[in-house]
Design brief:
By secondary structure, the protein is mainly α. The chain is about 70% helix and about 0% strand. Helix 1 crosses helix 4.
Length: about 190
């Protein structure tokens, strides 16, 4: 599959429109899932912004499929940070379910269904922000430690530590019947 994606990436770099569509179909659900889990205000809109930024950069892409995934999630992470800053300034528009006229299932709902049970999402929210980012980029984005470090602008050693702590906390929370907030508070205090 990776060799196929390498070929599709090479075709997209040369401007093949069908290849661009195939790459979008492969990566957009993962990007939207990452943005959804990370609490983006409009994950579908941000996903589109990511690809509007990435596709014009393809002629300068290096690293093939792996380089593309790293670039896509680097841009997604930057867009997420921008979204969080914008919301911090108080310029949000509430989502009203009753006014949503879409006839198909939303990408957010599809992404959440792929992620698993609501319990996992709730527990993920208890992780410190950086740990949650690393775990989601590694799992949903299927990025390596190096690619995650590039996407987040952090050293690889820091990403590895964040992943280790995040996974240990998740493991403890998912296997412990105790109050999950106590476990997370104890884990984050040891930073």
């Amino acid at each position: 599959m990776t060799s196929d994606l390498e070929a599709v990436t090479a075709d997209a770099v040369r401007g093949d429109v069908a290849a661009l569509g195939e790459l979008y179909g492969e990566l957009a659900p993962r990007v939207c899932g990452y943005l959804t889990v990370r609490g983006a205000d409009d994950p579908e809109g941000l996903t589109n912004e990511v690809f509007l930024k990435v596709f014009p950069l393809l002629p300068t892409l290096t690293g093939g499929w792996e380089g593309l995934r790293t670039l896509v999630f680097s841009v997604a992470h930057a867009r997420l940070v921008d979204d969080q800053r914008r919301r911090g300034r108080g310029t949000t528009t509430p989502y009203l379910v009753d006014s949503d006229s879409r006839s198909q299932e939303s990408a957010e709902n599809e992404a959440i269904a792929r992620l698993g049970q609501q319990e996992l999402l709730s527990v993920m929210e208890l992780l410190p922000d950086d740990q949650r980012s690393v775990v989601v980029l590694r799992v949903l984005g299927d990025l390596s430690i190096r690619q995650t470090a590039v996407a987040m602008g952090r050293p690889e050693s820091a990403v590895a530590r964040l992943q280790s702590r995040g996974l240990a906390t998740l493991r403890r929370l998912l296997t412990n019947d105790a109050d999950p907030t106590v476990s997370v508070l104890g884990a984050s205090d040891r930073r």
